[in-house]
Design a protein that fits this description.
Elements: E1 3-11, E2 14-20, H1 36-46, E3 68-76, E4 78-81, E5 85-88, E6 98-106, E7 110-114, E8 117-119, H2 121-129, H3 144-151, H4 155-165
Antiparallel strand pairs: 1-2, 1-3, 3-6, 4-5, 6-7, 7-8
Length: about 170
Amino acid sequence: MFLKELELINFMCYDHLKITLDEHITVIYGQNGSGKSALLSAINLIFGGLARERQDLLRNFIKHGREYAIIRARISNAIPLPGRGLVVLDNDAPLNSDIVIERIITHEDSSYKLNGKKTTREKLTELLLKVNISSKNTFYFIPQEKITKLVDLKPEERLDSLLTSLGLYDLKD
């Protein structure tokens, strides 16, 4: 399992939300306006994504009237990947431990913590790339506005996009 838990504080429509994600599959459903897109935005932002698609300023993710927002994610330290075996994110931590990533957003800026210690977006991105997680990978994070574009791709373009996102494009043909 990768993402085990997500916690949001003062984030968009949420005062405080803490959800545990299932080991095999998690389905997020609800009525329009219930906060489904907010959850996906939080996942994108905690993994180093930028706020370009729906809101161009990070401070817009702070719930109205609040001073800050916090996104916290708990992920597995050791992740089995097909063809690569067990990939360990933090070699200094036990294999069966979890890693906690935190992003604090204020009206002025944004910062990251990894297991309670300050880190940079670049270091976090580098860490997550070990397990092929990138907020730029459109198969992990598909903003609502881009679904139509993906559907409208020609079959060959769709295949190229899929192979690229899986890291298999070089094996094509």
